[in-house]
Amino acid sequence: MISASRRWFRRNRKTLAIGTGVIGVGYLAGQYVLGKISEARERMSSDRIARENLRRRFEQNQTDCTYTVLALLPTAAEDILEALPVEELTKELQKKRAERLARLNAGEGTATGSDMSSVAPSLLEDDRKSVSSESFLRTSQLGESTVEGDAPQPKRNKTQLWNEVKITSITRAFTLLYTLSLLTIFTRVQLNLLGRRNYLSSVISLATPADSSTIRLEDHDDDLTQTLGNDFETNRRYLAFSWWLLHRGWKQLVEEVQAAVVEAFGPLNPRDDITFDKLSELTLQVRKKIEGATEEDRKHRKWLPYLLPPREEEDHLLDESGVLGVTEPSTPQTAATLRHLLDETADLIDSPTFTRVQMLLNNECFETLIQQCKMDAFKSAGPVTAPQSFTSVATVVPIRENSELKTKLANVLAVLARQAHTIGNGTSPPNIYVSAMDQGVRELEAFAAVVYSSNFDSELLGAGSGTNSSNATAAVPGSASSSPVIVGRDDRRAEDSTTTTNTDDNDLEKAWGRAVVEQPSGGPTA
């Protein structure tokens, strides 16, 4: 038996050796494949967790942007309401009317009810004639009466007061709309830039190997933290630049809006009838004057002077905003990081994408305002098909349903005066204009996603010295396969040694287009 087994093994030893080798190789190959599958699963799980973490941070960041806008809005609204005091003009008109009635009563003695009923129509007719017969107030006189509130005002007749009420109420409402839309998109840019840098800072901190010999309670690498902007002093200085729009930028807007309103609404009599189509058409004329009459003009509209100061006034802004009194002295690292943030912010504001989103925000704000005027002044709750919004060729489409809606212009002015307080409302009830922009302008969140997720690779490479950049890159979802969006510097800021990146405007445009198409939920691209 034993000899037979030996002979069998001797005859089949080659076959057995080959079989054993095949089985061994198969086992090793199987273990290798299983290891790779397990590794791929872990990598996919880590990438999924990173994506969810990025999406959660992004969504929380957008919520913070909305609350920040509501917190900052009353600062600008109070100044605008004070500079354009419609209520004071209305009180002065009421006072003049009361004085006139008193004079009539004193001249006629005790008047009966029938006498008073005959006096009231005559007063209205006299007012109508006086308004139509006298010339309207000039723009320069209006500017002196609204801006220089402390100066003694010359005595104005009823014609001038009515004209001031008309121009001031419309100017105030439109200025608040532009201020709100600019504050909304500017806050998105600021907080998403800081959110992106803080996210990358946390990623690199997690990817940096910890020193097992010591226990450290602070960040793993202070230099990397400062490089990526997770620096409280830098962030505070950067966020203080919203002061410019809240205290200076809106004043430039008032001048432009006032001139456009005088040109469009100046010839109208406050006591004449106005149709809904006419109101929408005049509103669009004002917008064309401010934003651009053609699509090409609107594409090149520059909003930067309203949002950021010239470089020589930046220190003055920090001083006026009170930041310098509560922060530590600026270090070279802080100054360099702040300069980088301001340069990138200026590039984003000057980009065509910013102008496009800003126009959409203005469309939503003005459409909401016209809707409120229609419901309150024209006594109609029907849908508005927005001839006051820009189309691709900036034309006005007349709506037959709205053509019969008619009311006194004075009624529209009263609605605009009340809506100014609603636009500047930063507390409860919820601001309907902020909600309309958040819910109606999908491109706003797409633009925020581009800002939040762009420049991941470039910032990681810039901070890669002293840490495992490959591990840090792996923690950023999609960063290994997607090309980075490099935002270029404009020529005015390119002289600084910290801003030597080449300009590439098309990258931002392409990334924005992908964000709009690929992200229905508004989250950042992976």
Automatic annotation (TrEMBL):
- Where is the sequence biased in composition, kind Polar residues? 135-144
UniProt key word Transmembrane: yes
Q: Which UniProt keywords apply?
A: Membrane, Transmembrane, Transmembrane helix
Q: Which PANTHER family match?
A: PEROXISOMAL BIOGENESIS FACTOR 3 (PTHR28080:SF1)
Q: What is this protein called?
A: Microbody (Peroxisome) biogenesis protein peroxin 3
- Biological process (GO) annotations? protein import into peroxisome membrane
- Please name the GO terms that the record assigns under molecular function: protein-macromolecule adaptor activity
Instruction: Output the InterPro entries linked to this UniProt entry.
Output: Peroxin-3
- Pfam families assigned: Peroxin-3
GO cellular component: a single term: peroxisomal membrane
Q: Show the stretches that span the lipid bilayer.
A: 16-34
Which portions of the sequence form the region Disordered? 135-155, 468-526
Q: Where is the composition biased (Low complexity)?
A: 472-485
